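TL;DR need structure tokens for one chain.
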Amino acid sequence: MQASFSTCQKAIRIWTDFQSPTNVSNWPCPLRLRALTDTSFVWFPRRESPVFYDRLMHACFRGGLKSPRIVQEGVNEATILSLVSSGLGVGWVLGTARWRCPESVVIMSVVDLNVALPLALAWEKDNTSLLLASFIAGVRRLPEVRAP
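>> reply
TL;DR here they are.
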């Protein structure tokens, strides 16, 4: 979701795709990492996903957010969204969180943040469900999927 001018004019607490309890109209649009240097963050613990954590930190550094000020950790998206809605800071969530975030939270894209989150599909090899087989076939047809 790209940040639009109207989105940036709302007084909100922000959490972005994979920001601060402040009036967003003061923030530049489009939103870039370097604009978040003085922002308090709710972050996920590195132990939850060390490789993704390191990729995200590296992307932030490259974008001008050299040392994010992490004030709290949340182990899952629901916890992070709740902490953001309470005004503790801003955080990173998937863009799909816009369908389930608290009313006081708005999801905005940070245009210079592009970190892939690889996923894998796993299933019991002896499962003969036709529904499962159809689902797997559909996933394999997706252009971005590298399936064996």
